[in-house]
């Protein structure tokens, strides 16, 4: 037992076990058959090709928002701004779509994506500059800027960008097909999945190999010592804030173009916050974020489906997410305490 | 000294205690009794296991094997520091736990068992929580923020905090390594008075002056084992050195010859700078190639700021620092300087290493932007050269004991011969052997042409080895001497404290 609990896999295995247990307790407490409901959830999350594809669709923005949090997180910066960056990314990308003439082809698609990344970057740059020049806490600024991003989308689609053809529905005109990423096998899963995983792998390499990874480790461990040895904290912090913003901005345009087909309110189902939690659960490890976002996306899809078919209260999905995060934070903490008590 | 306390039953007994961290056996089958009313000096080289042994008693770690009996029949009654506190045991750690943003009094109140819910304003003189503070450190203003105190002063506050709680046994882990001589003397007096009032004291130290001033009993550890446990009267200075080091390591490092040229190598010109709690005004120094230039002063008089400005870490307001004629100072906060001088900073745990990273990376900090990771064998060899224990490149720097961490920083900074050395309290927390090795290394770098700026409070060492000694007080260089036999400890001491002016 003692040896086993010190192994690397123990926290993950125990977290999963504990989460299954609290989920069962939760279902029992709301008068549902625990085992059957959990089995149903599995089916609704990944049980058939449709469920699986819908889970993957949700995985993409969650994964990208988690990566957007994890990038500045590697330096110890706590950004909660993925939600706002996602919205601004969508705005910038949509703006390009609106000004481009019809059928611009692959170049148009690239322009849309680049614009989205630039929009997100801008929303990472502002809190980044405030942080490194004026020492203003990035958590507060990113939190506040989320409201700006979300409300700005509303302002645009209720105002100048509303397409008259929508008969009053607040939304822009639809994205033409050539400005949308390709889909896989006729599902709603789009090439953004490949891009997101690609970014995760690239980040993993950047954060674990080479000079830059060591510089980030030193600066996040001890800023003063890093600066003593000629490292530039301000520049690194700004760069990471911008990179994080760019990734979230891409997630925004993926949602607007590939999933919703146009820019409209309700662009994100809280992906920014979910991504933030996923990043923290994954300890800011890009390669951990990939499976964890898939797991959380599955939980959300299953929760949504259960609402429809099993008459489980609408809040259950949120409660289950909350329970997942609580167990995932508590179990490793308890293990650490146990280890601390009995030596390494 | 104290009346034969050995006749009474011991307050605490440790029996056959063992404790390992992964492959390191930190404490190996140690049995020792601790009595009330007695000062036990615990000595031993860096990494001998002194801190670990006391942390076992205090409940920070649990022993792998062995028994701890405290005050009566029960076995192993302590499983956390809280239990230890309940039994009247307190410990001041090498790296202490104060909240910098709170005032001294608030920090003391946080740990005070009788803190009322509503804190009334009362005259500080009548405040029970400040009573101990006035006894051992009357110079500290209780309403000052802890963050603005010097390391030595923080140490004293931490000590007061513990003394407020513990009535029976106080464990002090190298308390004097960060104290000025005057502060240390006051502490010695206080430790004696504690013992006379029946409190047991365990005093971990490397300084024989501490032992001489207040120990009743001396215990010596080496490589995890207790190798000596004797009454203080029964051992003399040389015997003590032999027992601690296992050798006749009484000799000192040979001081270097005089500098070969007068050509200044490291120049400080009209330098002014300020930080939150220190200012420097118009400092002018010229250090020649091969010269060892010592700056004496009570800590907190601008030395740490001077060091950081010369190292290019802290921004200066005016003037310049030149190395062979080129500026190496940071003129604006946005300017990032490459490290130009070998720099051993004050408080290396905070200023000289990244605690969460391994020794290999910590050794490579100087060439972070250029080279990749070095082969493990090289890293191990470098660690062994400076006797960092354990020389395991994968170990986290934060897990090293205080002295070994200091050696780690020295191993990195003094590995290559450079143009200048900036050493701030370079031997802090080091045992005799390591101290000698560090001085030898610095002197040989000077002999090879480096300009050495040495900030210290070890007046005897300075008088023995420095070519030039300057005294710093309140951000100024008050006086500068060529070293000779006419210069005395008293003279420098008086200048440090400003006693001349009075
Ligand atoms: N928490 C820890 N984890 C791993 N190794 C440790 C830890 N604490 C101490 N050690 C190791 O145990 C040995 C004894 O350390 P310590 O008791 O701090 O020595 P000292 O006699 O200098 O106080 C050292 O080799 C040190 O590196
Ligand atoms: Mg120690």
Residue fraction in strands of chain A: under 5%
- Provide the CATH topology of chain A: ABC transporter involved in vitamin B12 uptake, BtuC
> Numbering strands along the chain, what is their spatial order in the largest sheet of chain B?
5-6-7-3-8-9
Proper CATH architecture of chain A: Orthogonal Bundle
Give the overall silhouette of chain A: globular
Biggest beta sheet attributes of chain A: none
Ligands present: adenosine-5'-diphosphate, magnesium ion
pLDDT averaged over residues of chain B: 85
- The number of distinct helices of chain B, counting runs of at least 4 residues, comes to 16
Radius of gyration of chain A: 21 Å
User: How many beta-strand elements of chain A?
Assistant: 0
Global structural class of chain B: alpha/beta
Low-confidence residue ranges of chain B? 1-6
Q: How large a portion of the residues of chain B is in β-strands, by DSSP E?
A: 15-25%
Supply the CATH class of chain A. Answer: Mainly Alpha
What is the β-strand count of chain B? Answer: 19
Q: How is the main sheet of chain B built?
A: 6 strands, mixed
Largest interface: A-B, 22 and 35 residues
Percentage of residues in helical conformation of chain B: 25-40%
> Can you tell me the number of structural domains of chain A?
1
Describe the protein's architecture and organization.
The complex is a heterodimer of chains A (344) and B (502). Chain A is 74% helix and 0% strand. With 344 residues, chain A is mainly α. The model of chain A has no long low-confidence stretch (mean pLDDT 90). In chain B, 29% of the residues lie in helices and 24% in strands. In chain B, helix 14 links the parallel strand 16 (420-424) and strand 17. In chain B, helix 3 packs parallel to helix 5. Chain B starts with 11 loop residues before the first strand and ends in a 5-residue tail after the last helix. Chains A and B meet through helix 9 and helix 10 of A and strand 1 of B.
């Amino acid at each position: 037992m003692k040896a086993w609990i010190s192994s690397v896999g123990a926290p993950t295995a125990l977290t999963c076990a504990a989460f299954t247990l609290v989920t069962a307790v939760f279902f029992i407490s709301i008068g549902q058959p625990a085992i059957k409901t959990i089995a149903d959830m599995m089916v609704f999350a990944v049980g058939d090709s449709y469920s699986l594809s819908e889970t993957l669709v949700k995985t993409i923005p969650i994964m990208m928002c988690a990566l957007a949090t994890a990038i500045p997180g590697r330096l110890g910066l706590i950004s909660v701004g993925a939600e706002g960056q996602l919205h601004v990314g969508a705005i910038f990308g949509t703006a390009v779509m609106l000004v481009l003439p019809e059928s611009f082809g692959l170049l148009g698609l690239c322009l849309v994506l680049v614009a989205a990344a630039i929009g997100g970057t801008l929303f990472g740059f502002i809190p980044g500059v405030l942080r490194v020049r004026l020492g203003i806490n990035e958590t507060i600024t990113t939190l506040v800027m989320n409201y700006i991003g979300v409300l700005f989308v509303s302002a645009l689609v209720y105002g100048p960008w509303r397409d008259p053809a929508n008969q009053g529905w607040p939304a822009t005109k639809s994205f033409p097909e050539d400005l949308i990423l390709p889909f896989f096998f006729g599902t709603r899963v789009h090439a953004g999945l490949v891009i997101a995983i690609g970014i995760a792998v690239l980040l993993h390499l950047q954060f674990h190999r080479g000079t830059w990874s060591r510089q980030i480790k030193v600066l996040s461990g001890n800023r003063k010592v890093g600066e003593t040895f000629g490292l530039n904290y301000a520049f690194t912090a700004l760069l990471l804030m911008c990179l994080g913003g760019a990734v979230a901005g891409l997630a925004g345009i993926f949602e607007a173009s590939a999933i919703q087909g146009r820019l409209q309110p309700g662009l994100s189902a809280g992906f920014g916050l979910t991504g933030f939690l996923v990043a923290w659960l994954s300890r800011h490890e890009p390669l951990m974020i990939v499976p964890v976002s898939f797991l959380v996306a599955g939980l959300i899809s299953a929760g949504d489906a259960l609402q429809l078919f099993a008459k489980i209260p609408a809040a259950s999905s949120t409660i289950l997410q909350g329970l997942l995060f609580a167990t995932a934070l508590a179990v490793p903490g308890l293990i650490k305490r146990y280890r601390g008590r009995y030596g390494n | 000294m104290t009346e034969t306390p050995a006749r009474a039953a011991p307050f605490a007994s440790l029996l056959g205690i063992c404790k390992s961290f992964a492959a390191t056996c930190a404490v190996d089958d140690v049995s020792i009794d601790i009595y009330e009313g007695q000062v036990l000096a615990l000595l031993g080289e860096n990494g001998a296991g002194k801190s670990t042994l006391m942390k076992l008693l205090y409940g920070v770690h649990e022993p792998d094997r062995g028994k701890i009996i405290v005050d009566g029949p029960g076995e192993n009654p302590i499983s956390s520091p809280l239990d230890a506190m309940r039994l009247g045991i307190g410990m001041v750690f090498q790296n202490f736990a104060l909240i910098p943003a709170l005032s001294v009094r608030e920090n003391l109140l946080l740990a005070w068992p009788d803190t009322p819910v509503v804190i009334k304003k009362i005259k500080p003189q009548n405040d029970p929580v400040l009573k101990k503070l006035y006894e051992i450190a009357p110079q500290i203003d209780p309403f000052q923020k802890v963050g603005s105190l010097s390391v030595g002063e923080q140490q004293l506050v931490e000590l007061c905090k513990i003394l407020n709680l513990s009535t029976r046994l106080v464990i002090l882990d190298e308390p004097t390594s960060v104290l000025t001589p005057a502060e240390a003397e006051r502490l010695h007096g206080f430790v004696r008075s504690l013992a006379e009032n029946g409190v047991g004291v365990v005093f971990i130290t490397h300084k024989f002056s501490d032992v001489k001033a207040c120990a009743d009993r001396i215990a010596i550890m080496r490589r995890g084992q207790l190798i000596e446990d004797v009454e203080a009267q029964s051992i003399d200075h040389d015997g003590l050195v032999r027992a601690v080091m296992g050798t006749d390591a009484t000799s000192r490092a040979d001081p270097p010859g005089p500098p070969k040229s007068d050509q200044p190598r490291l120049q400080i010109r009209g330098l002014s700078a300020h930080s939150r709690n220190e200012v420097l005004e118009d400092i002018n120094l010229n250090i020649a190639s091969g010269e060892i230039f010592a700056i004496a002063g009570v800590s907190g008089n601008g030395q740490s700021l001077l060091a950081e400005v010369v190292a290019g870490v802290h921004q200066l307001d005016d003037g310049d620092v030149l190395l062979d004629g080129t500026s190496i100072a940071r003129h604006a906060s946005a300017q990032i300087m490459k490290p130009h001088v070998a720099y051993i900073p004050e408080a290396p745990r905070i200023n000289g290493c990244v605690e969460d990273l391994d020794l290999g990376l910590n050794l490579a900090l100087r060439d972070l932007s250029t080279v990749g990771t070095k082969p493990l064998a090289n890293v191990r060899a470098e660690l062994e050269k400076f006797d960092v224990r354990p020389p395991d490149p994968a170990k986290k720097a934060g897990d090293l004991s205080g002295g070994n961490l200091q050696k780690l920083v020295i191993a990195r900074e003094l590995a290559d011969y450079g143009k200048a050395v900036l050493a701030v309290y370079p031997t802090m927390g080091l045992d005799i052997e390591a101290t000698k090795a560090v001085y030898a290394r610095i002197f040989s770098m000077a002999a090879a042409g480096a300009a050495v700026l040495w900030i210290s409070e070890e007046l005897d060492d300075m008088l023995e080895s420095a070519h030039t000694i300057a005294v710093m007080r309140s951000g100024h260089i008050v006086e500068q001497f060529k070293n000779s036999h006419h210069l005395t400890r008293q003279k420098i001491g008086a200048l440090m404290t400003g006693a001349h002016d009075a």
